[in-house]
Amino acid sequence: MIRIKNTLILLLVTAFFFTAFAGAIDDGPRPGYRDTPIIPGQKWRVHDSERPYPVVVDPGPGTFSKGRPADAVVLLDDSGDLSAWSSGGKEARWAFVEGAMEARPGSGNISTRESFGDIQLHIEFRTPPEVKGSSQGRGNSGVFLMERYEIQVLDSYENPTYPDGQCAAFYGQWPPSVNACRGPGQWQSYDILFTAPRFSGEGLLLSPARATVLHNGIVVHDHREFLGPTSHRSKPSYSKHGPTGKISLQDHGNPIRFRNVWLRRLDDASRSDSR
Ligand code: MG
């Protein structure tokens, strides 16, 4: 009788903890915000915690090549030469480890020395194999086009965060159409076709910045419009800037690695810059 009673108590205790745990998963707060402005032209708020998560699509194994087109501007190869990059105009303070450039937490963003307008950019990245932190704290970096328009880099493999801040998002503006992330420690790629914004002489926006982004070979943005430079918790808005800008990579406190970075210039403005 005592044994049956003990078993019953054990069952009840187990059921209680199971229910409490399951409840925590269902009802726990999702990362994000509900007190931020509505994104112009959308029904969601900036970093909206209620925005639906993009569907996960396994991109399959990576097929990487060291090859690049003959007219590519090489920004990083496997030689360990970081001279295309700088930290505030001085030598880039990031490391070169096992054939890749690694963000040194606390050392700040790095930028290309050259400026570019419309480009085709190829870049490979790897979030840390050792999983630490959650949401925006896990494997965070970013590719800033013209130092303003961020394509987010984040470990979004089984790591919920607000959808407009997950890997491959136009940060704070557009989630990727699907989540094509590989797991932590695996190499991934972005192929980005970027069109710089155009402004009139008076500073009016004639056409916004746009990008098509392939994440691990999968289209996640198709000629999508940036609503302005990237901002955090606020509405983006344009102000006039030059026809070219540097590409920067973000130090967000995580040792993200990058390798095989190259681009092709697609416009006259940036071509004339280099002459
Ligand atoms: Mg970032």
What is this entry, summarized?
The chain has 275 residues and is α+β, with helices and mostly antiparallel strands.
- The percent range for strand residues is 25-35%
Task: Compute the number of structural domains.
Answer: 1
CATH architecture grouping: Sandwich
Distance between the termini: 92 Å
Q: Count every beta strand, where a strand is a DSSP E run of 2 or more residues.
A: 18
Which topology does CATH recognise?
Jelly Rolls
The poorly predicted ranges are: 11-26
**What can be said about the biggest beta sheet?**
8 strands, antiparallel
The CATH homologous superfamily is named Exo-inulinase, domain 1
The SS-based structural class is alpha+beta
